């Protein structure tokens, strides 16, 4: 889907809280897995804002802070990845939020290389079960998402030569120490990008952070409509 909105105006946000939801799987077994990049992002934002994500509501653990003068609800669904939409829809209803204006969902993306991120205002789930659940529960693809790359840095020729594409096992296995070091830096950028969205809007954030990652380059192609394994 075309990203014409990157240069267009976005409706003014409502006066209610802005919802920032990170997707992942609850429990210690999944804590440092690539599929929990969304949870890691919420924890990093909470740490920088001086809050703890521990209140339970709408089948999620949450925290509230203020960013750019606006109330922000940080949330990590406790429904497991495949039912993420249940919690997201409950949060949207609870806070009377407009998904197209008052919601940011953060999750992992296997088709983006580890160390990169990409912001989009709409689009297909591209095989990500958590994103598919959110779209189904909201009945719309019109919601802002920030995808964190978790794919290995391999050139397309490697797959052509027979290297197996990573899938479920990779996503649900603990990350290596070196990969966690890369992820640590990315999480700071995710937190900064989230603040930029709240301060200046998605178009400004996309122009800054999507371009930055394009300039850095990526071994994996970002195929928005190509199915990926997920959990």
Explain what this protein looks like in three dimensions.
- The protein has a single domain (16-216), classed as Peptidyl-tRNA hydrolase (Rossmann fold, 3-Layer(aba) Sandwich).
- 35% of the residues lie in helices and 20% in strands.
- The protein contains seven helices and seven strands; from the N terminus they run E-H-E-E-E-H-E-E-H-E-H-H-H-H.
- Strand 2 and strand 3 (60-67) form a beta hairpin.
- The chain starts with 17 loop residues before the first strand and ends in a 15-residue tail after the last helix.
- The model is unreliable at 1-9 and 217-230 (pLDDT under 50).
Keywords:
231 residues, alpha/beta, Rossmann fold, 7-stranded mixed beta sheet, 7 helices, disordered N terminus, disordered C terminus
Structure summarized in a few sentences:
The protein has 7 helices and 7 strands.
Q: According to CATH, what is the topology?
A: Rossmann fold
CATH superfamily: Peptidyl-tRNA hydrolase
Structural class: alpha/beta
Unreliable segments of 5+ consecutive residues: 1-9, 217-230
Shape: globular
Main β sheet profile: 7 strands, mixed
Q: What integer is the average pLDDT?
A: 87
What share of residues is helical? Answer: 25-40%
Radius of gyration: 16 Å
- List SSEs in N-to-C order: EHEEEHEEHEHHHH
Just give the CATH class: Alpha Beta
The number of domains is 1
* Number of helical elements: 7
Q: Name the beta content range.
A: 15-25%
**CATH architecture identity:** 3-Layer(aba) Sandwich
Instruction: Tell me the distance between the termini.
Output: 24 Å
Number of strands: 7
**Which sequence of strands runs across the widest sheet?**
2-3-4-1-5-7-6
């Amino acid at each position: 889907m075309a990203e014409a909105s990157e240069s267009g105006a976005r409706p003014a946000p409502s006066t209610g809280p802005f919802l920032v939801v990170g997707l992942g799987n609850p429990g210690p077994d999944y804590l440092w897995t690539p599929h929990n990049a969304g949870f890691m992002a919420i924890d990093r934002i909470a740490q920088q804002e001086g809050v703890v994500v521990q209140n339970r509501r709408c089948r999620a653990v949450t925290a509230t802070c203020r960013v750019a003068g606006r109330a922000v609800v940080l949330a990590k669904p406790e429904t497991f990845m495949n039912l993420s939409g249940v919690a997201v829809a409950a949060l949207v209803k609870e806070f009377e939020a407009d998904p197209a204006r008052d919601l940011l969902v953060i999750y992992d993306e296997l088709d983006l290389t580890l160390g990169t991120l990409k912001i989009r205002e709409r689009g297909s789930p591209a095989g990500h079960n958590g994103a598919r659940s959110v779209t189904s529960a909201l009945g719309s693809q019109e919601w802002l998402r920030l995808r964190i790359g978790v794919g290995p840095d391999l050139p397309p020729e490697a797959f052509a030569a027979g290297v197996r594409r990573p899938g479920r096992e990779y996503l649900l296995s603990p990350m290596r120490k070196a990969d966690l070091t890369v992820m640590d830096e990315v999480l700071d950028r995710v937190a900064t990008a989230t603040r930029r969205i709240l301060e200046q809007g998605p178009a400004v954030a996309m122009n800054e952070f999507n371009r930055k990652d394009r300039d850095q380059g990526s071994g994996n192609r970002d195929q928005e409509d190509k199915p990926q394994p997920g959990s």
